[in-house]
Amino acid sequence: MTDDSTRRHERIEHHPTPGPLNSLQYWTDAKPVWRVMLNYLFVLVARVAPSLRVRNWALRRIGVTVGTGVSWGLEATPDVFWPELVTVEDHAIIGYDSVILCHEFLQDEYRTGEVVVGKRAMIGAKATILPGVRIGEGAQVAANSLVTRDVPPGTTVAGVPARPMSESESE
Asked: Quick one: where's region Disordered (predicted)?
């Protein structure tokens, strides 16, 4: 979707896990239990608070970089394990019940990657953004989309996986 010199998978950090179990079984080796519990409590506040000011305050407390004028929709969820890898730039909109993931637990490893939502970008309701993805300035992600690749500035994407929409589709 982008001709950027790096792609999402090239920005992802790989963390091998020991033993025969899947990587989620070793999550406590990756993050302290108390930290994930504290993150979860602040995420819960950010998901249900009626005030945008309170939502953004709660997100900042756990390390999410939240720009000026960000609108964080009800029930939207940032990564609970690595919220410090989420950046939402000025005047972006994160839609209702969307999810921003900065980790993937796999069989033999887990992966982490920063997600950046650019200035004035819009993430539609129930969209999911995968680790390492960059959403460009003024880009739009349609509702219910799965974003597996970077979205160039000013582009509208939709679908599973999300792909650029043609001019006629986006009107």
From this structure: 152-171
Are β-strands 86-88 and 65-66 bridged in parallel, bridged antiparallel, or unpaired? parallel
20's tokens: 């025969």
The four Cα atoms 140, 60, 65, 156 give a dihedral, to 10 degrees, of: 0
pTM of the model: 0.91
CA distance 144 to 161: 10
Q: What is the pLDDT of residues 20-37, one digit of tens each?
A: 889 999 999 999 999 999
- Separation of alpha carbons 148 and 9, rounded Å: 10
Radius of gyration of the chain (CA): 16
Q: For residue 98, give the amino acid letter.
A: S
CATH homologous superfamily, domain 3-167: Hexapeptide repeat proteins (2.160.10.10)
Q: Are strands 115-117 and 134-135 parallel, antiparallel or unpaired?
A: parallel
**Measured between alpha carbons, how far is 164 from 158 in angstroms, rounded to an integer?**
7
60's enclosing H/E stretch is: helix 52-61
Question: Would you state the structure tokens that stand for residue 137, as one six-digit string?
Answer: 């300035």
CB 118 within 8 A of CB 91: no
